[in-house]
Write a structure and sequence with these properties.
The structure is a homodimer of 499-residue chains. By secondary structure, chain A is an alpha/beta fold. Chain A has 14 helices and 18 strands. Chain A folds into two domains: 8-240 and 451-481, Aldehyde Dehydrogenase, Chain A, domain 1, CATH 3.40.605.10; 246-425, Aldehyde Dehydrogenase, Chain A, domain 2. Chains A and B meet through α4, β2, β3, α14 and β15 of A and α4, β2, β3, α14 and β15 of B. Chains A, B: Residues 10-441 form the Aldehyde dehydrogenase domain.
Chain lengths: 499, 499
């Protein structure tokens, strides 16, 4: 479908190998697109969802073919993708993201009168989106970054992931149909295929105002660097790398240890372990119950079979990461499953001595993307806390605990909430709910900007900035900040939110 | 008072020339300080305000001596400073900045149950603050950056401005007394004196989590670069450089042109023009009424006298900037006042041809900090729009207009709101109200991060990030997200704010 190294879908089916044409079209579309009313913009997001659904009989098999992921998983991802778009349609219609604040004039204030000052959020401008290999739909062409940027009023230029170019193209065509049917400018959405150079060119383009990225640490940091070299710096929201520590507290081992170990291995091996939130590091109490957990985990993973990884490159990186772990003194294999083909490597659980976390060595703490878990034993929470504090920033941190662990868990929580974007109890980090309270983010290197989330409705705030309007005549005020409040927004008046 | 190159006030009066000691103390204080309740933290901010007021008979004369600014202005700044601290105390007590979101569990949802997910904002960590030369109180040691970072729950390390070290030290001691009386850890606030190297060391310190800066473009960019070179990148909020374009529309010239011109010169020369929001560039219609405005502006500035600038270095930079303007072909002096001493240079208004804005030359568009204004004539708004679009990002953009200018003003507004953090009508940009709707920010190079403001209550959001709590047992939940809502916060339940 896409034979050229680079192609653009920008309103028409004509393909131009030209990033600058896409960003110029985005700039040309910006004024009209950001001027859409909440209703118009919401209807457009819903139209995108409907067009994807209408073409799902073509999209699903293409995504299965390109990603190697099972059809059930891809079908679920279509639902997640359209659900995200509809969630953001609801957010836009409701309007709280506009953050309207009004400090009315105080003409009689002494010693100086106060001007009338009104604030709203405006979109940043054209956004470049880089989709992920592991979610060809939900974190890709029409994924969370695209949906939240479009919701904020920003035109979007997607650089399609080379692991699923044809899926990306089909989705891009669906979005383009929604753009056309909604009467929006063609440049509201563009799709570019290409390699690393194309991505660098897109981020360096002076017309791009922000970047959303989901992928590897190396890829994310390259874009962060490219952005830092621009004359005008821009925000880069790169979701990159996380080993998602899990702490099992002693009480959690008093129940069915084997079931807990199986659940751990289930989360570890889900989708070949190809999730940003894969539980790569587990802290386990020393002692007999811990030994029993480890034995059960070893048995569970030994019975697990490899699954086709997304790309040969990802499988190679997994082979290299596991070889490095295996070759490190002190690390032993707890259990290893079976490979199921050249790019379907065996899942594996290692045990590593805690000392490997303390030294200036990233063998254990670098993410190995795939179904490889490392277990580290600990004696008590006092000795565990400095290990946790020494970890890099994470997307998630998990605690398994019962009521008897309350004291230990209380000591962990303040450390974990500063280390991760999401703290969860008695579950597994894989599975990221799309909702209003979700945070899929976290301190570096989990992301390049911890002040945000790439999943959930708060993600819209990444792509806007505040503007104040001082003594702007009523006839000229933007609708969001007008006295007659035509969009029915809940406003902050003199610091207090309207009821 | 401060003979050493570097000094720290951190709970005691002992002075240690050691940035690392200050940041280590901040880290040590973070857990206890961020655990304060809204009431405790608000009371602390109010105690800081009270301690500054209690010592104002010492602080005011010291600030007058060090800054050369008149006593009335400094007295006003004390009120602005304590007012800001009390505003943030109110923000903290009210609690909306915590952004609480709760998506309750849906155990019966098909195909998968939904976990209980709750979100709140947590403080980023120790913040480094660099005060401004031109506001020795309101944008300095206890200024807006410090107040908003403390309000967010972040310990603060201030690098005092070398232009007012003794004022800074007095204010730092007032804050330290409030820290002690409030029973907070000493490292909640530290004050360091030093030069550029000290500042670089502070920003490079791995314990610093964010930076607030108000000052020159050169100084701000140096800190941005220092932050980009860290292993772990951090947000840098640098408010740097703006020429604050003013557009006079034809209708505004139909009234009292001389009064308008005098008001312009009044804003231009206020405080020797040493404001970030000084109106450095004014667009004036061609034609007779514009000629009359220019003549009146020339007369007004000719009658104005120079005032002592803040430092010899600032006066030197003003001399160099005005020499560059004066030496540029096509630029003419419209009017020039009189100098009042070596460091009290003459205010001046220039006229420059519009072509100088179009070429790749920053002579006219670089900020000249001080009372130097450039007037550019235009024929119609159609020719003006590309000039405005070509400008760099600004803190403010001003329009003078009457009802007859509505069409022109409507065309300007969408351009100006993308160019500046604040758009104002029929006033002058100097004078930045401290309130809830204010934005003192804007696209680069006005600031290094347009997603924020350094004045007004929204500034608190710069120093926090979201964390999600998934299925965290009730006994362990932070107070902000507990079901019993002990702080009486207004929460977003399943996407909808509580009434």
């Amino acid at each position: 479908m896409s034979d050229q190294a680079t192609s653009i879908i920008a309103g028409t089916d004509s393909e131009q190998p030209d990033v600058a044409a896409a960003t110029a079209a985005a700039v040309a579309a910006f004024a009209a697109y950001r001027a859409t009313t909440p209703e118009e913009r919401s209807a457009f997001l819903e139209a995108v969802a409907a067009e994807i659904e209408a073409d799902k009989d073509a999209i699903i098999p293409e995504a299965v073919r390109e990603s190697g992921l099972p059809e059930g998983r891809i079908t679920g991802e279509v639902g997640r993708t359209t659900g995200q778009l509809r969630m953001f349609a609801g957010v836009v219609r409701q309007g709280d993201h506009l953050g309207v604040r009004i400090d009315p004039a105080l003409p009689d204030r002494a010693p100086l009168p106060r001007a009338d000052i009104r604030q709203r959020m405006v979109p940043l401008g054209p956004v470049a989106v880089f989709g992920a290999s592991n979610f060809p739909l939900a974190f890709s062409t029409a994924g969370g970054d695209t949906a939240s940027a479009l919701a904020a009023g920003c035109p979007v230029v997607v650089k399609g992931h080379p692991a699923h170019p044809d899926t990306g193209t089909l989705v891009a065509r669906a979005i383009t149909r929604a753009v056309e049917k909604s009467g929006l400018p063609a440049g509201t959405f563009s799709f570019v295929l290409g390699g690393i150079e194309t991505g660098q060119e897109l981020v360096a383009d002076p017309r791009i105002a922000a970047v959303g990225f989901t992928g590897s640490r190396g890829g994310g940091l390259a874009l962060v660097r490219a952005a830092a070299e621009r004359d005008v710096p821009i925000p880069v929201y790169a979701e990159m790398s996380s080993i998602n520590p899990v702490v099992v507290l002693p009480g959690a081992l008093e129940g069915d240890v084997a079931a807990l170990a199986q659940a751990y291995v289930g989360s570890l091996t889900l989708g070949s372990g190809q999730f940003c939130t894969n539980p790569g590091l587990l802290f386990l109490p020393s002692g007999e119950r811990g030994d029993a957990f480890l034995l059960a985990a070893g048995e569970a993973v030994s019975g697990a079979s490899g699954q086709q990884m997304l790309t040969p490159g990802i499988a190679d990186a997994y082979a290299s990461g596991t070889a490095s772990l295996r070759g490190t003194d002190g690390i032993r294999v707890v259990g290893e499953g079976s490979a199921a083909g050249e790019h379907a490597p065996a899942p594996v659980v290692y045990e590593a001595p805690a000392e490997l976390l303390a030294i200036d060595d990233s063998t254990v703490t670098d993410e190995v993307f795939g179904a490889a878990g490392v277990v580290v034993r600990y004696d008590d929470v006092a000795s565990l806390l400095p290990r946790l504090e020494a970890l890099e920033g994470q997307l998630t941190a998990t605690v398994h605990a019962t009521d008897g662990d309350v004291e230990d868990a209380s000591a962990l929580l303040p450390v974990l909430e500063l280390k991760a974007g999401r703290v969860l109890f008695n579950g597994w980090p894989t599975g990221v709910e799309v909702g209003h309270a979700m945070v899929h983010g976290g301190p570096y290197p989990a992301t390049s900007d911890s002040r945000s989330t790439s999943v959930g409705s708060l993600a819209i705030e990444r792509f806007q900035r505040p503007v104040a309007y001082q003594d702007v005549p009523a006839a000229l005020l933007p609708a969001a900040v007008r006295d007659d409040n035509p969009w029915g927004l809940r406003r902050r008046l003199d610091g207090t939110l309207e009821a």
